[in-house]
């Protein structure tokens, strides 16, 4: 057993863990590892928002974004999702992961990419676009997997999987897997602000974030699950999960949840895959913790998971959580409805 | 709002809290306060164990113990409970609270009390007796009340009620209400040992404890509750509570729960009152925390409590939790069945 915090990210603590050194978790879980060359990662969510009748245009736009990932300096990993939001809009999101922010910058600043994104044509495509990009440093994110191979998300751009880790199985363990938690509470400062544009008018809107906005990606993959595990997922877990995710989407604002999207993976043609995850933005990690450890829907998911985790074979459950500095965030919306992403809770300045 | 840790018990921290300084709990709760003259309290559980056919003798024994509390240096507060254990024995427990361990010693060493307890007659009464006494220092216990008047248990021997306190509403808050948690993790050392007698043979058995055995008293009082609150208690809370308490009683050993008794208050004649509490002994506070924050029955109790707490009028919910040094514990059993109290998990030496 080893700490979730990798050796090269350890430092003298000013903040202690909840658990004592001899704590033993009730079952094994693992985290992704990367060597010191990984300094900062880019998690870039590119969205396409549309009404059903514009599906053909939206699909093409999504495919264009995916194709742009093949250009020089493109991401090392990506996946594609679909969801319908609570305003009745469909959304494709293509998320790319870069292990090197420099490569991301070179990619984004390439003519093909930046011209496409910045072009006025995007304002006239008849659909919406958004990009939500956070660039956490190596000490600003944590992962947790109930499996050890073919890591999804940020894990795919890292090097390896850990040995069994100690910091899991108790509330507060996500925080304690963050290397920065050794010395920093990751508190929010400031508020979301509209710094350009007007959500009600459409067009381009830029939202300014603040330090320590917390992004969680929490996923389930039942591609290779047998009937029994599918039953477990669909009957025992999904109802609570869906209720919890709907609650956060519709009523999360009061709790500090800026945006919550429960998305389903799709292939390049938009066909549904047996993979899903939630993308949640929170004002700060402590707000996410309070919800996770007290809301009945999440507690039900959690107790079910505890009950079945040691028997899981091919139902793959995991999450990744990050915080980022305001200066390492980009939130841009083009012709999206005003409830989209960070716009909903952002103040006009 | 103020800290659950009283001013005179604050000290420079070596261990940090889970919460940040600006944390605001979702609703108000309170703790008992005492001035610096309270250095250490005695929580003394005196038990009478019997088969139903010996009820008359047992009742007399229980009444004798209660009457002895009126002698000089008796406790400032006491109450009486009844429960049937999982071996089919009934038990009366009289619990006394002393604010001054010196007074307790003088009381117990008085001829009337010590002679009665030490007399060989107790071996021949045809019923069992036990005493479980823990004497935590002021920094070794915490309380939590969802009400502010007529505090039960240890609160009744203290001076006052706090203002709204900060450390509640999150997992780990019980620990963080302990003054000693500022510098000490309250870890268990050693094991329970039989130091005299043999549980299988009956007679007198003494069990040696170890540092930081954790005692929780967690109570409900529906004496003045109206129909709606009784319904809430009996229909929404009690089923989960009963299931959780039965689980700990019967299967708690593997989790570090040494003993669990869900008891009902009675009057001096043994008539049931509308007051109940659980008396749980744990190897250490972290074992109790792990159970409380992960077991479905407790999570259900917890989420129900969260839902209804702000509306509670006369359903009184509270708990008190203590740890104690091995040298400040007494566990003695006289003709009790070998599953009683600390005997079940104690090793013969």
UniProtKB/TrEMBL annotation, chains A, B:
EC number per UniProt: 4.99.1.5
Key words of the record: Heme, Iron, Lyase, Metal-binding
Cofactor needs: heme b
Protein name in the entry: Aldoxime dehydratase
The family this protein is said to belong to: Belongs to the heme-containing dehydratase family.
Keyword Iron among record annotations: yes
Any Pfam family hit: Dehydratase_hem
A molecular function GO annotation: metal ion binding
Alphabetized InterPro entries for the sequence: OXD (IPR025702)
Group of enzyme by EC: lyase
Recorded name of the encoding gene: oxd
